[in-house]
Design goal:
The structure holds 2 protein chains of 2 kinds. Chain A is mostly helical. Chain A contains 19 helices and 11 strands. By secondary structure, chain B is mainly β. In chain B, about 5% of the residues lie in helices and about 50% in strands. Chain B has 9 helices and 52 strands. In chain B, a hairpin with a 2-residue loop joins strand 22 and strand 23 (about 440-460). The chains are: A mainly alpha, B mainly beta. At the A-B interface, helix 1, strand 1, helix 2, helix 4 and helix 5 of A face strand 22, strand 26, strand 30 and strand 31 of B.
Chain lengths: ~525, ~1000
């Protein structure tokens, strides 16, 4: 009897154990906080969310920490990030940007590379999903595809301009390590893509704000043609004019009455902006221009709901090129005494002078004020970043005309653009063909600590230097300057502030070391 | 050879166990005394034992020792119980009764050999163990103020490094066993409390009976995928005797001071410097900011444990309350831990049941999150370091004196204008049924459920810098999470001996699942700051979309089957083999299951005939083992193809902002276990009746298929990194343990233990068949702004822990660093490029030493624990940031103006090798002096002891920072002594314990 009991107990125990074995080897992972691809069938209403990531990476790319803005401006002659009293040297990264002594480890070019390719990969992925039918589109498939390809072309344009020799990838499913293309091939690809998709892109300028529409594509193409000689050795002035003209003739855009309207926190209302990277203090954060440029003491001036970091400022030699009556000077730079918004007490005074890259005080240098700071602004501005605007198109056309011997026509356009900047003295707005033939007013040379310009080169010898100056005044702090300096032959030849010319190959940034390491097909750009 | 002695070795040990056996009232009315005499013999060979310590239980002052013929005479009270102890023999208690002439036989202890060691799913006699297992019993624990279970055995287990990197009352010790063994997974050991996964704080240190550490692969492999970092088995105190009725109470109180106080420029120094023409701002005052943020903390700890019942039904209960304060104002934490352990056996002990409940509550009411103490107080500490010493704490109107500056805030206001309350609750329930249907065979079913939850609330007031700088008008948040873990283990155990053969067979199944859920919401812009976090809806920011709200949930499952066979022949030749097959939900379907085998052998040389003549040898055992363990991925969903709607990836599409629909990661359905293979060889030895004993272990471990965030090109991949199984890491090392009893006389006993370990680490590769890394290194560590560079580089073929830095060779006439460039030339730092960085030093110590001493003199006991680490370097952030006079907006160390190469530094903050210092140190860490009170002081009292103790007392080092041990030693940036930290402290403790 006793034995039997034991047997029963053993049996029961084993059965119990057996039961648990059976139920407890189920290792299927239950997913709660993510959307499983296998369980999710997107519908047409999800389309904006699916397309959004193609654009979202442009936010951090443009104005993110050490992003495209810094890449274009700090390598040029208008903006520097000198060491501030709080010790912002960051291992010399800003000095290397200014002096063109970067290496393949420099973060800013790597950042631009990675953000550009993130957009490209996302575009490829969504294009592939559309063509596979994973995303059901009943109408408008061509337009969506055209838009995705146009954004991809935009990202490739950035790579074309910065790194030149990059791999062209259009097939999402190809998992082989991409092959590198030459700058010429990238140029051809971008031009071909833009021309192909143009007919299918939306013509509606108002419903496509922040997205690639037909006019954005044309303005972009005009810009690419303007720089074609740099990219390929062959100029495309007539093509630049033709594309610009189409935008102009469309009548969809115009110059805003006030220059500053283009850059306010409500600039999505601007009639001038053709393609913007939209920012929002809640939904689309990342416009930190004010945080990087302002001293912490400026917080009470607007007032701001964030303590800025205090960093970059204008190169004094660049400020010296402005006409005193050009309202764009005050519209672009924060200068002089800054007053507390409530008490009116002066909290800090920004001076033009900057002693050196290595050592400054917090008051040295005019700060970037183009992107107006709304009262109670947070660490992220609402202001959209206008990448292509109507004035661009006009100036592209003007420059192309100038370079093809039509200086008078060019002068008319430039004068038109200048008008709103010289409201107090309209006569000064007018520029003549002869003016445009002059050199630059920029007093190129190495700046000593006392502010004097040594090793002086001046700007007289720069062909169409006045046109370069015009671009500088109109587009200061819009991430244009590096490209313009290259096109006007200044970038590799002139000295400014604490910069002395480096090898001509510095016009292209290096292929980032991290990318060379990941993809053995890639070859470094010459000179690195 | 020994004189008679009246005091026994390890009184506490004897008291502890003897009470279980004897239920005599400790004192009675003063009884008549009489003389007894007797002889003590060895039970083995009946030879007389000289020098055996004999005391009367309950009265340490009455005692003697046997003479050269093993004889003794003693005057004892009526109904006395004698306690006999002798090194190498088991202590014994003898009830005198009415005898006057006694002959007592003592059994050879073979202390270590008969000692039971806890191993995976069972216990084993120490003599049978063939793996590398360390076992520390309660009587050998570190005494005094003990932070957590790990600190109990600090410096006592060779190869297990335990340090205290933070002085925060909320932080734990940092533990590491045998080097760094994972990149993305964890190198932390698996901690089991009575077989159930838990942490170092699951039970109070006072409630722990023993800590056993499974060090090598052959021991740990039975725990499969959780065991690469080793296994720490914590056994709680239990009523093990037949019957025992005891109440123990203990407490201590401690005070703390900062381990080493940085010397900053004072207000007067500022004014002096201004006179010298240096551009400082003088606000007229003289404020010692470090003093302003610090308090004189008083902490206390109380523990009550009771045992009761009889041989079939008994219980253990304990209640522990601890209230610790930190050296910074408003930092502290209180913990309550209650435990009940019930045992009942039936059917003549064939069926044993156990029920255990552990409930603990950790409460924090202070300025910042307890989880964030190091970071939040670290920032406050930084503000106190850099704040202008001529400035004042408050203005004449009583408002905080704030100034606009770059990351420049009044540190005192940050403490007082921020509130935080956190409550952590855990309830652990476990039950087991152990059934032995026949002799030699038993089945055990263990089930447990562990539920814990946190509820946190934090707020800042209108006067906080959040409002001043960001106009947030008071902020508040609330967060909660809940974790529910189930464990079921079924084991069968068969043990059989026939002739000289003995074997055991274990088979089992284990199931574990865990579900984690969390929710948090924050808000700001409140009409009043009096709500704290108790009326989140009253704020305005959440409604405007500015504040965040989040929730998530995940679940994992782990199933395992395991078996083990041990065999010994004639107690001489030992063999063990085990295997575990385990599957996890965190890996892809193709790779869910892994197999983790182990085997080990042992040879007890001392049992061989040819060793018989060597009387000085007590034990020599050779061991060798091999085992495979795994490491699981540390986050869920890694193998899933999934997407997220992400607002950060959103864009302005069709005239409005929409979230982005983005892939969660690069998909890798091939993810699988990391596998560690380890070979261990060792020797256990004991000489002179184990007065000299110890062990030496050599190990070599290789971790393959390391989970690594591999950098991949985009395109073709979706994001820049992809988690894959790539890479191999190697650790080799030597561990030595040596226990000595240098002195054992009548009144004096001195035990001394040494531990030594060394580890050599190498990253062997970072590639696999599919992914070939051209980039054979990765960077780790970060200086923080405004320097903003990585600090370490881990390179294939090289050891982990090396700094990667511009090597400074001097300072030029302008006060700027001169560095050595990549071609070996000396260049000014202004011309340095990132390519000029080079490897310099290593943050992982080559040699780790411990030396623990306990001395007993009459009723006094003294413990001195020392340890040190040698052959490594520390990156001194304090020096890097505050030993540079360039930035006059911030305060700095007095030494900032000390010239280097005859020049005062005049250069920006920069990461150069000058700040990497030799970290060698020798620490006289814990000194505890105790006194055991005469027992008849209080009626009914069985034992009473008082003690004073000092922790982190003296550090001998050339390192110039706060504490060479107060640094992070795990991960890939070891040896970083961060700028923002909660500095380590020196602790002075007084306490008492009484047993009734």
């Amino acid at each position: 009897m006793k034995n039997k009991n034991i047997k029963h107990t053993v049996l029961a125990t084993l059965l119990l154990a057996g039961a648990t074995f059976y139920s407890c080897t189920d290792l299927k992972e239950e997913v709660y906080s993510e959307v499983l691809a296998s369980n999710y069938q997107p519908t047409e209403k999800d389309l904006p969310a699916i397309v959004a990531p193609v654009y979202s990476s442009l936010r951090s790319l443009m104005l993110g920490w050490q992003g495209y803005f810094d890449l274009q401006e700090e390598a040029a002659d208008a903006i520097i990030t000198p060491v501030r009293p709080n010790g912002w040297d960051d291992g010399g990264t800003y000095r290397r940007m200014h002096q063109h002594t970067w290496t393949s480890l420099q973060w800013q070019p790597e950042n631009a590379w990675q953000s550009s390719f993130r957009s490209i990969t996302t575009a490829n992925r969504v294009l592939s999903q559309i063509s596979d039918g994973d995303i059901p589109l009943t109408t408008g498939k061509e337009q969506i595809e055209a838009e995705l390809r146009a954004v991809r072309a935009f990202a490739y344009y950035l790579l074309l301009d910065n790194h030149g020799n990059v791999p062209i990838v259009t097939d999402f499913k190809d998992v082989n390590l991409p092959k590198q293309s030459t700058r010429k091939e990238v140029y051809d690809f971008v031009v071909k893509e833009l021309l192909e998709v143009m007919p299918n892109l939306s013509e509606n300028a108002s419903t496509t704000y922040g997205q690639m529409n037909r006019w954005g594509a044309k303005a972009l193409l005009a810009k690419i043609y303007l720089n074609a000689e740099v990219y390929t050795g062959t100029p495309q002035w007539e093509n630049a004019i033709a594309q610009a003209d189409e935008v102009i003739k469309s009548g969809k855009y115009m110059l805003d009455a006030n220059y500053s309207d283009v850059f306010t926190w409500t600039n999505f209302n601007s009639k001038e902006i053709i393609f913007a990277i939209p920012y929002d203090e809640i939904y689309g954060t990342g416009n930190q221009i004010h945080m990087k440029t302002l001293d912490p003491l400026s917080r009470t001036v607007y007032p701001m709901n964030a303590g800025p970091w205090g960093g970059n400022c204008a190169v004094p030699q660049f400020i010296d090129t402005y006409d005193a009556e050009d309202s764009r000077l005050a519209d672009t730079w924060i200068m002089g005494p800054q007053k507390n918004a409530t008490t009116g007490a002066v909290v800090i005074t920004y001076n033009k002078s900057v002693p050196s890259m290595e050592k400054t005080s917090s008051t040295d240098g005019f700060r970037i004020g183009k992107y107006k700071i709304k009262p109670n602004a947070t660490g992220s501005l609402d202001n959209d970043f206008p990448f292509l605007r109507y004035a661009d198109v006009l100036m592209i056309k003007a420059e192309a005309l100038l370079r093809t011997g039509k200086a008078a026509e060019a002068a008319t356009i430039v004068s038109d653009v200048r008008k709103r900047a010289f409201k107090t003295n309209a006569a000064k707005a007018t520029v003549t063909a002869a003016d445009l033939a002059k050199g630059s007013r920029y007093n190129y040379g190495y700046q000593a600590v006392d502010g004097s310009v040594t090793e002086r080169q001046g700007g007289d010898d720069i062909k169409f230097g006045r046109m370069l100056d015009e671009l500088g005044w109109e587009f200061a702090a819009e991430a244009h300057r590096r490209q313009d300096l290259i096109r006007f032959g200044v970038y590799e030849k002139k000295k400014w502030f604490n910069h002395r010319p480096q090898a001509a190959q510095r016009a292209l940034f290096p292929i980032p070391q991290a990318e060379l390491d990941k993809n053995t097909n890639l070859k470094q750009n010459p000179g690195y | 050879m020994n004189k008679l002695s009246r005091f026994i070795r390890e009184v506490s040990c004897a008291l502890l166990f003897s009470f279980a056996l004897i239920l005599l009232p400790a004192t009675k009315a003063k009884a008549a005394e009489r003389q007894i005499s007797g002889q003590v013999l060895s039970a083995e060979d009946k030879a007389p034992l000289p020098g055996v310590t004999i005391i009367v239980k309950g009265n340490n002052s009455v005692g003697t020792a046997t003479d050269t013929e093993g004889k003794f005479k003693l005057t004892v009270p009526d109904e006395a119980t004698l306690i006999l102890s002798y090194i190498g023999y088991t202590s014994q208690e003898i009830v005198v009764g009415n005898q006057s002439e006694l002959t007592i036989e003592l059994a050879p202890d073979q202390k270590q050999l008969s000692e039971v060691v806890v191993i995976g799913y069972g216990t084993q006699k120490k003599g049978d163990v063939t793996s590398s297992v360390a076992s520390i019993k309660r009587e050998d624990f570190i005494k005094g103020t003990v932070r957590d279970a790990a600190q109990l055995v600090q410096g006592k287990v060779a190869g297990l490094r335990i340090t205290t990197p933070s002085g925060s009352p909320t932080s734990n010790t940092q533990i590491n066993l045998r080097g760094i063994n994972s990149i993305n997974g964890t190198s932390d050991p698996l901690i089991l409390i009575d077989g159930i996964p838990g942490g170092l704080n699951t039970v109070a240190p006072e409630d722990i009976e023993s800590v056993d550490v499974l060090k090598d692969g052959s021991a740990a492999a039975i725990y499969g995928t959780r065991a690469t970092g080793g296994v720490i088995l914590i056994t709680t105190r239990k009523n093990r005797g037949t019957s025992k009725s005891t109440i123990e109470y203990s407490n201590y109180v401690n005070v703390q001071t900062i381990a080493s106080r940085p010397q900053l420029l004072t207000g007067d120094d500022y004014r002096q410097k201004i006179k010298e023409g240096i551009d400082y701002t003088d606000y007229g005052g003289n404020t010692d900011w470090l003093s302003e943020i610090m308090q004189k903390p008083v902490s206390h700890n109380h523990n009550l444990t009771f045992f009761g019942g009889n041989s079939t039904t008994n219980f253990t209960g304990s209640v522990n309350y601890r209230n610790w304060e930190g050296i910074f104002l408003r930092s502290g934490q209180s913990r309550f831990t209650g435990r009940a352990d019930l045992n009942h056996s039936m059917f003549n002990h064939k069926l044993k049941t156990n029920l255990q409940l552990i409930n603990r509550i950790t409460s924090t009411n202070g300025a910042v999150s307890p989880a964030d103490n190091d970071a939040a107080y670290g920032y406050i500490y930084r503000q106190a370091m850099i704040r202008n010493p001529t400035d004042r704490v408050k203005t004449e109107t009583g408002a905080w004196q704030e100034r606009d500056g770059y990351f420049y805030e009044n540190p005192v206001s940050r403490i007082y204008e921020s509130n935080y309350a956190a409550k952590f609750k855990e309830m652990r329930m476990s039950g087991s049924i152990d059934y032995a249907p026949i002799n030699d065979l038993n089945f055990k079913l263990l089930v447990s459920n562990v539920q814990n939850s946190t509820l946190d609330g934090g707020s800042t007031t209108f006067n906080h810098t959040n409002t001043r700088l960001s106009n947030q008008n008071a902020t508040a948040f609330r967060s909660t999470n809940a974790d529910n873990q189930n464990l079921l283990e079924f084991t069968g155990n068969y043990a059989k001996s026939f002739g000289k053969h003995r074997f055991t067979l274990l088979g089992g199944y284990s199931w574990q699942d865990a579900t984690y859920e969390e929710f948090s919401a924050s808000n700001w812009d409140f009409p009043t700051d009096s709500y704290d976090w108790n009326n989140l809806g009253a704020g305005g920011a959440l409604q405007k979309g500015q504040a965040a709200m989040a929730s998530s949930k995940n679940k994992w499952q782990l199933a395992g089957f395991f078996g083990r066979l041990t065999y010994s022949f004639n107690e001489k030749y030992l063999f063990m083999a085990s295997v575990r097959r385990e599957g996890s939900s965190r890996f892809g379907v193709n790779n869910q299951w892994g197999t983790f085998p182990a085997a080990s052998v042992g040879w007890r040389l001392s049992k061989e005939k040819f060793m018989e003549g060597l009387t000085g040898v007590s034990e020599i055992k050779l061991r060798a083992g091999f085992g495979v363990t795994g490491t699981i991925a540390n986050s869920p969903y890694l193998s899933q193809i999934s997407y997220n709607f992400d607002r950060n990836e959103g864009a302005f599409i069709g005239g409005k902002w929409v979230p982005g629909f983005v892939p969660a990661r690069n998909f890798n359905p091939n993810l699988r276990w990391e596998k560690k293979e380890e070979v261990n060889a060792g020797i256990d030895f004991g000489f002179m009746k184990n007065r000299i004993s110890g062990s030496v272990d050599f190990y070599s471990r290789k971790v393959k298929d390391l989970l690594y965030d591999f950098p991949v090109p985009v395109p073709p991949y979706l994001t820049n990194i992809m988690q894959i199984n790539a890479g191999t890491m190697k650790n080799q090392g030597l561990e030595v343990l040596l226990n000595l009893v240098p002195v054992q006389t009548a009144n004096l006993q001195w035990n001394s233990g040494f531990t030594y370990s060394t580890n050599r680490n190498k990253l062997v590769s970072l590639s696999n068949d599919q992914f070939e890394a051209a980039n054979d290194f990765f960077d780790a560590g970060y200086t923080g702004e405004p320097i903003q560079v990585s600090t370490h580089r881990v390179k294939v073929g090289e050891p982990i822990g090396r700094f990667f830095v511009w090597k400074s060779v001097g300072v030029d006439e302008k006060g700027a660093w001169l560095i050595e460039n990549k071609d070996g030339e000396v260049i000014p730092i202004a011309n340095a490029t990132p390519e000029d960085r080079q490897y310099y030093g290593n943050g992982i110590p080559k040699h780790i030493l411990g030396w623990n001493n306990s001395v007993r003199f009459k009723s006094f006991d003294l413990a001195v624990n020392m340890r040190g680490a040698f052959g490594y370097d520390i990156l001194n952030f304090q020096s890097m940031f505050y030993n540079n006079p360039r930035n006059k907006a911030y305060n700095m160390l007095k030494t900032a103006y000390d010239p280097i190469d005859g020049k005062v530094l005049n250069t920006d903050l920069v990461y150069v090798s000058n700040y990497i210092e030799n970290g060698n140190y020798w620490k006289i860490d814990n000194v505890t002096l105790g006194y055991t009170l005469p027992v008849n002081l209080v009626k009914g009292m069985k034992n009473a002891r008082i003690f004073v103790s000092g922790l982190n007392l003296i550090t001998l080092t050339k390192y110039s920072g706060v504490d060479p041990e107060g640094v992070v030693m795990t991960g890939f940036a070891p040896g970083s002594d961060q700028r923002d930290k909660y500095p380590t402290t020196r602790t002075f403790t007084a306490g008492l314990s009484v047993t009734f």
